[in-house]
Each structure stands twice: as structure tokens, then as C-alpha cells.
């Protein structure tokens, strides 16, 4: 019997001589610990291969008001859907276990409803009939609880698992010898995420990241932090002079610029109707505040200034409803020919209400940033592919001069890539890579190979990497590097790795991580690429 057992840590003993932590499962403390009271949380997920025809899922949630929400079981990537009974495709292009007896489908799975095999309160159980599943079938699932069908602000939590031939996929082990993991920044009251790692002058490394007060990608309550390292990322300190990425430099002395999407602009909720009339992407942030996606701009300043001194708009195509950024150091490059290129993403107005239809747009300048163009990767948009959209994109120029765009796909699953052979003017139809995860960062190594790092939000969650020795045409996932596999986040919220090669050839990778379901922090790993 294969099992995933996910339990909350209730006690820990510290051995002074070795600093080894020993954790005790929740069952051993039930007599002394009072019943949990607080926001709903997943207590346990168990996936069991019962017999040759059956695999069972058992999910237990505890906390206050669990009964007001519902369970949810999502299939987000698969080799084929034909062997899965009881699932339906939602308008967001994911497959869900249907919890409704009505003709209309529902992804809300009621406790003790039609799909629940366990009558215990706050426990959901479902059995897969795997009798006709091929041994080669692969299905990736997310099982959890969410606040629906309530109409309050959406909250959810989930755990991931993969079935291969109907059986639980055994986890890959971390496979990089002598990898050095460090916590760069951690605060129990702060949601630290989205690191931006960049090279500065004089061999320094710069790092910036968000320090939000709430676990939310839209709500901007909180701040940010900047750090600098003079020893290749082993130690960090507060900068004493203005920081900048050397890729922002222009040919003019002491002049910096960065092209970007305006991203979310925060305004009073009274503007909602007018923004919707303009066909803008509008999101709720917090009571009284909404956010909408703006256009694009180029920001300019001197190298000695502490903030951008000038923002000039970049005209965007009329069909766009707004643009969003991926991390600047991953998505902005200056090519060998001197072209400045930024990958951003957004939805056309005709796809305003379909989040899965995002596309890549480029901000491009071939005159050292004096003038800029904004145009789509594909003039006609994405069609005829197994994905509906792409968004967060890393750019890297290979040794042969080609520029490779490595994109997060919708629905999420594998990374997709596109190639430009003319300095970013035109792009090939995206193709599916064998790298599974998102989003990515990519660099050209000193030996000419390409290295791509990416978050992995399936079991076992963490950070992974792969190398290409043919200028990005293929990626060696047979020798995929598993940098971290100890992620425990609810929901599956970790990753956004950034990477650089140090002068001694060692690889330095920084990312945000959660190992206790609670504290999201900035972490790093130094490692060597295995021979």
C-alpha cells in the first residue's frame, strides 16, 4: 500500500550536539493536545492503492467553520482523460470531480455528499476505479478544501499527488550531492516571496523580494526588501548605496532604464464600473480597493539615484486589456546585438474574462532604449495547441544567437518554449518541453550550455532544474536536477526561482519556499551541476 501522509508538526526535540529535529505525528499527542480551533487546515491526506482495481483518497480537514465550505478534487494534467470517471472539464480548462446530481456540473464536493464514501464529519473519501488504466497513464491531482459555495473572499488549501498506472507515484529524491541550502530571510508574520536576483557592478549580487502582510498575490499590503551580497550569496546585508541590475545600463554613461508592464494599479472601488466599461482586467484587493492592469512604460534614472526619475509610456496594441510582468531579471535581456527585450503578458479584450487565454507580448528597442515597440509573440494568438495560453516568461540568448522564451502554460503543467532567430522580431509557434513546473528562469552557462530552473508544485514540491546542450532545442529531463523536494505549502505556493553562475562555476539559486505549511520565506541553494 502506497501512502501520502501529511500531518502537522506538534513537537520537536533538539539534539544539542547535532541540531537534528525529530517530529512527532499528530496521533501521538491527541491525549494531551486540545482540539484544534482556528482557520480550516488540512490535517491529513492519504492516498492508498487498495487492490488492483482501486485506489482510494482520504482527505481530512479540521478547524472552525469547515462545514461552510466544501472539498474539491482537481485533475490538472494527464496523459488522457478517457479513463477518468465522474470528472468534467470546467470553463477554466481543468478537470474536476463532479459533486452535483443536477445536469449542471459542480466542483464543490459536499461533506457526506454523493461522492463522499466516508460518513465522518470533515472527512472526504473517494475511490478511483483503475481497472482499465494503462500502466503508462499519468494523472496529476490537487485535493483540498475551499470556501465555496460561500460568496466571501476565496480561500483554499490543497495537497498534490500523482497516479501512474493508478498507483501513487513514488517521489524522486534530491539528486545533487553537497547542495548547500540556506534561509536568506524568514519572518513568521511576513509573506516573503517573488525574489529578483541580479548582478551588480564589482561582482556584487543584488536581491529584492516582497514582504507582504497577507498571503495574497494581488493585495499589496506590506512592503519589500533589498539585500546585497559580496560573497556570491553566502551572506547578505542591507545596501549602503543605490542598487541596480547591470542589464539596465545603457550606452550613455551613468544612465539606466527598464521597460516593463505597469501591472496592477490600485484605485478606489468606485472606479470599478468605468474600468469594466474600458474592458480592463479588474481584481478585488481588499474592502474599498480594487486593482486593474495598466499598460507599459520605460523607466529611467541615473546610476546614483535611489529611485526611478522618469516614466515614459510605451504605446500598446489597442486589442490589449492590460499587461503584467514576470520577474525583471528573468524576463528582460540585452542581446549580443544590443537590442533590449522584455517579455510581458496580458489578455486581448475579446478574452477579457478568460484567465486561461493570456499571451506573451514583447517590449523591444533596437536604439538603446530611445524608442520602443510592443507586439504579440503570435499575431493571431494561440490556437491549435493543447494549451490555451501562456504567461510568466524567461528569456535567454543561446550561444548560436537564438533567443529562447520559456513560458508558463495555461492550464499549468509543462513549460513551453518559443525561439526567435532574428533578435526578437518574430517567434516560432510554442512547443511543449519535457520540463514540468513553473515559472522559470534561464541562463547561459560559461561552457555554452543553457540552464533552466523552475518551481515544482506537485508532490514532492520544491525546485528543479534541467540543462540544454543544443541551444534550447531539447532539455535533459532524464537527468533533471532536484534542488529541493521538501516543500509543504497550502496551497501549493512556492518557487519563482532565480539563478546565476558564480565565477568559480558554482550555481547559486534563490527562491521562495515553505516547509511547514505556515512560514513562506526566501531561501537559497549553492550547488554544482552533476557530471
Automatic annotation (TrEMBL):
InterPro entries (UniProt xref): Sialidase, Sialidase_sf
Signal peptide range in chain numbering: 1-22
Keywords on record: Signal
The protein's name in its UniProt record: Sialidase domain-containing protein
Domain Sialidase: 308-508
Organism placement in taxonomy: Bacteria, Pseudomonadati, Bacteroidota, Sphingobacteriia, Sphingobacteriales
Pfam families xref list: BNR_2 (PF13088)
Amino acid at each position: 500500500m502506497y501512502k501520502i501522509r501529511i500531518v502537522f508538526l506538534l513537537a520537536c526535540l533538539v539534539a544539542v550536539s547535532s541540531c537534528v529535529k525529530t517530529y512527532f505525528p499528530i496521533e501521538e499527542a491527541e491525549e494531551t493536545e486540545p482540539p484544534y480551533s482556528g482557520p480550516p487546515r488540512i490535517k491529513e491526506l492519504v492516498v492508498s492503492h487498495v487492490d488492483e482495481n482501486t485506489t482510494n483518497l482520504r482527505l481530512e480537514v479540521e478547524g472552525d467553520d469547515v462545514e461552510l465550505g466544501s472539498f474539491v478534487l482537481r485533475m490538472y494534467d494527464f496523459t488522457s482523460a478517457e479513463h477518468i470517471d465522474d470528472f468534467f472539464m470546467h470553463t477554466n480548462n481543468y478537470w474536476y470531480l463532479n459533486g452535483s446530481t443536477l445536469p449542471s456540473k459542480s466542483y464543490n464536493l459536499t461533506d457526506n455528499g454523493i461522492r463522499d464514501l466516508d460518513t465522518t464529519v470533515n472527512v472526504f473519501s473517494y475511490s478511483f476505479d483503475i481497472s482499465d488504466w494503462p500502466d503508462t497513464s499519468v494523472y496529476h491531482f490537487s485535493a483540498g478544501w475551499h470556501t465555496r459555495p460561500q460568496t466571501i473572499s476565496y480561500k483554499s488549501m490543497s495537497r498534490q499527488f500523482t497516479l501512474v498506472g493508478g498507483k501513487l507515484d513514488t517521489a524522486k529524491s534530491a539528486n545533487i550531492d553537497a547542495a548547500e541550502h540556506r534561509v536568506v530571510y524568514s519572518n513568521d508574520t511576513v509573506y516573503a516571496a517573488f525574489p529578483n536576483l541580479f548582478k551588480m557592478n564589482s561582482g556584487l549580487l543584488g536581491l529584492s523580494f516582497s514582504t507582504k502582510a497577507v498571503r495574497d498575490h494581488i493585495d499589496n499590503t506590506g512592503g519589500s526588501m533589498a539585500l546585497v551580497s559580496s560573497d556570491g550569496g553566502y551572506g547578505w546585508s542591507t545596501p549602503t548605496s543605490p542598487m541596480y541590475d547591470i542589464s539596465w545600463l545603457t550606452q550613455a554613461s551613468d544612465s539606466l532604464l527598464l521597460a516593463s508592464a505597469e501591472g496592477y494599479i490600485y484605485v478606489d472601488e468606485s472606479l470599478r464600473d468605468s474600468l469594466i466599461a474600458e474592458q480592463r482586467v479588474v481584481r478585488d484587493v481588499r474592502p474599498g480597493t480594487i486593482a486593474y492592469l495598466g499598460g507599459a512604460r520605460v523607466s529611467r534614472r541615473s546610476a546614483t539615484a535611489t529611485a526611478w526619475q522618469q516614466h515614459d509610456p510605451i504605446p500598446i496594441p489597442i486589442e490589449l486589456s492590460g499587461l503584467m510582468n514576470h520577474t525583471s531579471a528573468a524576463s528582460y535581456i540585452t542581446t549580443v546585438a544590443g537590442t533590449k527585450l522584455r517579455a510581458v503578458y496580458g489578455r486581448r479584450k475579446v478574452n477579457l474574462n478568460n484567465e486561461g487565454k493570456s499571451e506573451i507580448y514583447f517590449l523591444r528597442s533596437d536604439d538603446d532604449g530611445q524608442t520602443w515597440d510592443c507586439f504579440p509573440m503570435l499575431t493571431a494568438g494561440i490556437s491549435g495547441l493543447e494549451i490555451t495560453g501562456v504567461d510568466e516568461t524567461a528569456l535567454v540568448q543561446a550561444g548560436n544567437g537564438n533567443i529562447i522564451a520559456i513560458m508558463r502554460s495555461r492550464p499549468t503543467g509543462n513549460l513551453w518554449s518559443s525561439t526567435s532567430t532574428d533578435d526578437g522580431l518574430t517567434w516560432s509557434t510554442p512547443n511543449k518541453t519535457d520540463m514540468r513546473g513553473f515559472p522559470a528562469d534561464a541562463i547561459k552557462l560559461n561552457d555554452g550550455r543553457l540552464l533552466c530552473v523552475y518551481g515544482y508544485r506537485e508532490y514532492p514540491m520544491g525546485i528543479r532544474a534541467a540543462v540544454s546542450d543544443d541551444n534550447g532545442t531539447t532539455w535533459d529531463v532524464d537527468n533533471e536536477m532536484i534542488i529541493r523536494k521538501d516543500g509543504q505549502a497550502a496551497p501549493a505556493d512556492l518557487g519563482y526561482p532565480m539563478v546565476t553562475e558564480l565565477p568559480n562555476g558554482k550555481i547559486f539559486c534563490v527562491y521562495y519556499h515553505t516547509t511547514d505549511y505556515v512560514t513562506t520565506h526566501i531561501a537559497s541553494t549553492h550547488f554544482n551541476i552533476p557530471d
